[in-house]
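Please check this one:

***
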Amino acid sequence: MQDSPMQRMWDSAHLSGGNAAYVEELFELYLHDPNAVPEEWRSYFQKLPANGTPASDVSHSSIREHFILLAKNQRRAQPVSAGSVSTEHEKKQVEVLRLIQAYRLRGHQAAQLDPLGLQQRSVPADLSLNHYGLTDGDLDTVFRTGDLAIGTDEATLREIVDSLKATYCRSIGAEFSHIVDSEQRTWFQQRFESVRGQPDFSPEVKAHLLERLTAAEGLEKYLGTKYPGTKRFGLEGGESLIPLLDEIIQRTGSYGVKEIVLGMAHRGRLNVLVNTLGKNPRDLFDEFEGKKVEGLSSGDVKYHQGFSSNVMTPGGEVHLAMAFNPSHLEIVSPVVEGSVRARQDRRQDEVGDKVLPITIHGDAAVAGQGVVMETFQMSQTRAYKTGGTIRVVVNNQVGFTTNKQEDSRSTEYATDVAKMIQAPIFHVNADDPEAVLFVSQLAVDYRMQFKRDIVLDLICYRRRGHNEADEPSGTQPLMYQKIAKQRTTRELYSDSLIQSKVLTSEDVQARIDEYRDALDNGLHVVKSLVKEPNPELFVDWRPYLGHAWTARHDTRFDLKTLQDLSTKLLHVPEGFVVQRQVNKILEDRSKMGAGAMPINWGYAETMAYATLLFEGHPVRITGQDVGRGTFSHRHAALHNQKDGSTYLPLQHLYEGQPSFALYDSFLSEEAVLAFEYGYATTTPNALVIWEAQFGDFANGAQVVIDQFITSGEHKWGRLCGLTMLLPHGYEGQGPEHSSARLERYLQLCAEHNIQVCVPTTPAQIYHLLRRQVIRPLRKPLVVLTPKSLLRHKLAISTIEDLTQSCFQTAIGEIDQIDPAKVERLVLCSGKVYYDLLEKRRAEGREDIAIVRIEQLYPFPEDDLAEILAPYQNLKHIVWCQEEPMNQGAWYCSQHHMRRVAIAHNKELVLQYAGRDASASPAAGYASVHAEQQEKLLQDAFTV
């Protein structure tokens, strides 16, 4: 709005005198007919707070007071019960009101949504006059319009029906009647009905629309000519996506949004990167020609790449970020949400005014992928809400080769899943660019006012096959016969502009030539691109770049300060009644802090968080039951036994401390872990933790682990310091509550991509968590945390262990055993260590030493060699694990251990002690578990 006539009026006159009267008149005119005011004013008025009433039924007390809308005392048609109706006309009046509601509810089923005209749907019976006892003879009869927002209290039935058809049965199919909140429904009715679903746009807007369509089509044609047959997953048939995104970005910028994060799969991605985010076409051409990106060991295909840039909008500079995305459909959506939430937290944007998520979906994927439901479900929860997401479905009506509705889904629309959270849905014919523009504006205004998700279903087609090397007519002959004859969206729209004399054919051709010349010259094609972006709009990752792997880092902490923090964590507000068992935990922690009692896991973990907060690092922990901890060890959230209120001591350490966010998540693994990955990749200075209820349950999020966490750095150069806490240990709890599938993580380890650690003492988890943040290296951390060790009598540490030590990648023998007497060395990791220790002590064996490997990757060969050095009389070296032979660390780590053993003594042969190979992670019978456990311990001492 900068330098516009409207802005100058505001600035020069402060709405005084004649200007105020003029604006008053404009607003009154807008209330009667939005199309009757200039577009710039209409756009401004549309953004004014609705206050729960339709604009046509409200007035402004004063434009000078920012158009605070108040209810008019205007007479409204009241619902009439059939029993009270006395005349035939009044009976028909009731039926007319029912007809109006039917169009709002079912009009989308009669809308002209398919550009190809292949979707031939019968008009619902309840949209016909005779369904309500009305006839053509009633068409010229005047009826009250009720709350139909067409600017008049009364109209003929013909005018009412024509208005309803124009509003609900043209190029837009509106679904908002399922929304429970009447304020939102009324808002949509007024916005949609007042312009008959088709606002008038200025010649300048129409010309810009054509320019965006020309860019979208121009890039695809250029790539098709220059790189024929090369996969690009083009946007042909769905070119309206580009003006849609352009309008969303510009309009949200006018609201003061500072950052927008986009997530999308491969269809149209290259077009969005070049024509929306401003990626230099020359860089894209380099990728087509296979040029390697320096610094990436593997890289990724061009249609998975992310990008960021800054563009100028009427409200100022906006930072755009396109999330990197693998081929796994829909998984990027929760990653985007996590990145957005992190940016909002950084800006202290609690309601979502400054950062906006946009996710772009395919129709088959949005209907078929379960993570879509999970992401919708998280949209209004405390831990994961982002103030609403604009979700765009590029609906090309075919999923790879599946286009029959009965095969692709069980719902009428691909978008029906969104109704679970009462999201409004607008289906729009992509060959009507002005309808696309209108719903884009509607989506932005709704999201900014109501802070909820909205879905735009862009119904288009796929001009080529699934990719450019695919021949689609073999599986969709009728569809592609139609597509072969279909003129492009740009051609259809340019013809309409020429016919209406908005542009000439020469103007149209000039735009085509201008765009192609820009591509030939490798120029940026986004005119709003900011060449020197404001660095304050995005996170600076430079302090975390270029660091080599280091195992150790100084994580010591001052004893007196630690004890002061420990004392503060014991404080609860006056009148806050803590549950009896929890109070005992707090009493024990008081003794631990004073050094009068050995510290346990819960205390050490809590102090890790407290010390990091003290040093200026935010902490975020989510997962199922994380407040208490699945095994009741954490109790970071206290619950008042009187009124159920909650108190988090870690949020009250000192004034102005960094954020401590702790949320029990909803029952999801895939979406939640993806969210936390997105959060961690956007917040490098924070400790971000996701804890699985049981480590086994992480397999429900395996795609996140495979496609993002373990490979993101080497595919995309994307650093991430996410920490995963996965409870693991064989306590006879059966196949689904024993193993966190350690072997899967180790199999994914290479090039120092992640860390896999199995700490066995409270001090170890304390230093491990602190190392993860204090060390500038940013690598995902997978921690196999214990269950029974949380309270094991031997799994203890001292307060001095927290203040004076550091994380040890391997721990040698702790008993006073003469190294010269040791002939057998048992290597192990995790809980089994304590079983081995108790067995050795019970048998009084002094010829056996036990060594713990606390970090399985990167494997600490040098540290292990140093531990082995004193044992010069070794005859046996054994790896002992609880997991079956084909699981656990044996297969993935034995070569490391063998290399160290041979270097120590080339005669040593590494042997295995553990369960036999098994298809199941653990035995389900307690007796079988005990028998197996006893045997593996015995084997460790005898094989």
In short: Residues 203-226 form the longest helix (24 residues). The longest strand covers residues 876-884.
